[in-house]
Amino acid sequence: MKKVYNNHPRKVGKDVQRRINALGVGQKMQDLPEELWHDSFRFYVKEDPTRKGGPNLRIIRLNPDDQALTVTGYIFNKFVHPDENRFITPREAARLQGFPDEIEFKGSLTSVQQQVGDAVPVELGRAIFKALLDVFLEYEPKQRVFNALSLFSGAGGLDIALEQVSQENGNHLNMFACVELDADRCETLRGYFDGNLNVFQEDISKLNAQAILQSCGKQAKDVWLVYGGPPCQSFSQAGKQKGASDSRGQLIFDFLRFVGDIRPPFFMMENVSNLKGIDNGRLLAKIVKRIDELDYRVVYATLNAADYGSPQKRRRLIFLGSRKDLPIRAYLPPPTHGAGRSLFNLKPYKTIGEAFAGLPSPDYQPVDLSDNHLGGLEDD
Q1: Residue 130: which CATH number?
Q2: Annotated catalytic residue 178
């Protein structure tokens, strides 16, 4: 049997274990008896005068016949396994993100969790790159290789998607370099691609596009596609939503600076759907204006990864840019999956149960809640 990497959940204290044990399939914190609620959850639901909207989930047992909510770096103390009384492992979360089992995420458990949670679902990336490759081949049907540069590569969700599409479609797409700041993510990339990839651990805000091209023996005219996902914490609901006032929010414009310096025929940029509402839409308008100034046409929309075969209801804002001098432009991929009968012959949504199928249970013993085994356990 092949080795399964990163397949161990976080340990929990007795109070958390009691909540886990009491959860039915699909149930959340608010479905538990109140005496099992976390103190902060109780305050939020019953006492917080500033509360708006519904309660934070805090904890949920996954339904094997449904799709997961958005995987983030914080679901490892939120998503409970459908059948076992424990939180899910990074490997199970990686299955929800579409990562192949062969990838080993490097670094501490916290780092691994963030790497998995920050990634773009591989299935969504595959649909996007397949649509782009169709456009490339329509424009230049005799072209053998279309070179691509990956920025803000993370642990490689988009990069693995591009590699898979290329292997399945004549090896036309060639990702020649990845640029990523975090050391653990760079090691994850190097390990998966077995050293056969230029991985640059660099701060893009201080990096010149020409320096990357020269290091790889490429010229700007050789590059067909620049793609990536600038850090989204400043726009996400899980973060503090500081938007462009957060230094990370400015990295979108560093991505566009690379596009402007290289001027590839096409680019793809992704981010959280929340970006559209930042500053009442002014940030989005600023981004679109900058793209226009660079002489690119752009289409953008929020796509749900579940509509493309992911077992996860993760929404991402996708920008596809085409240089204005081209007679052809990029388009967003139509959904391939859906619920129930469809006039468009959509495949059924992929479920959590299907994603977890074949994974061995981790070597893990839940907390013993008997009276003789409670000493030394920490509360949450």
Answers
A1: 3.40.50.150
A2: no
